[in-house]
Structures are given as C-alpha cells and as structure tokens.
Design brief:
135 residues, mainly beta, Jelly Rolls, three-stranded antiparallel sheet, globular
Length: 135
Amino acid sequence: MKPSKKHTDSIILSAGEGRTYQCGNMTAIFKADENETNEKYSVSEWWLEPNSDGPGAHFHEENDEVFYVLEGTTSFLVGDEWIDAPKGTFLRIPAKTMHDFKNQTNQKTGVLNFFIPGGFERNMPAIVKWFENNQ
C-alpha cells in the first residue's frame, strides 16, 4: 500500500515500501512526509551498503532529528565526536548540531529517521542528483 496524501489517513506499509531514493551507496525510503503528517515530521529509513559513507557532515537550522538503528552498527558524528551505534541505539540530534552517519562495517546497516518538523523530503530530488553527479 502506498502512503496516502491526507494527514488524517492511516498509513500501513510493509518492509521496503515507501518512496525510494538511491543516493550512491545509500538508499532512503520515505514512509511518511509533510503531506501525510500535516508538516509535523517526516519518517524515513536510511540503508547503507558495507563500508560506505553517509550524507556528509551537516546540520539543520530549525529541525531536530531522531535516529534509531534498525540493523548492524552505524557510526554517527554528533557534534565533534564519532560514536559506534549498534542495533537498538537511539539518538536525538537537536537543531544546529553538526552530525553525519556512515557504515564502517562489512555488513549492511539501516537506521530509522524522524525529521521534526517535516519537509526534509523536499530536498531528496536534489540530493539524488548530487550523488549521481559526484559519485
């Protein structure tokens, strides 16, 4: 079932379902975005192939991010410190905090991401294009 476009509708998706964006060795699957959540948050999975970089160090002026490691061990930059986060680790990254994530293992890793408030998905076409042009 595809996500609905009304924030009053329930959303039920099976594993792998959602809007998929390929970003080099990273795959993003958006489960819900600002259209479905009345701009309150967006929810996505980010899957990284073995020994691959993530999006690069960045911060968001107005948005908090929440990460939950679904599979494997993902390395996170939080401020100026890298930490290894195994499956089940929860992270909250406040707005204006430098952060990044990558996979330094020989196994695929995955994280669930909440972007608060929503709207990050608007950037995905440009992000995909950047990876196509720079990888």
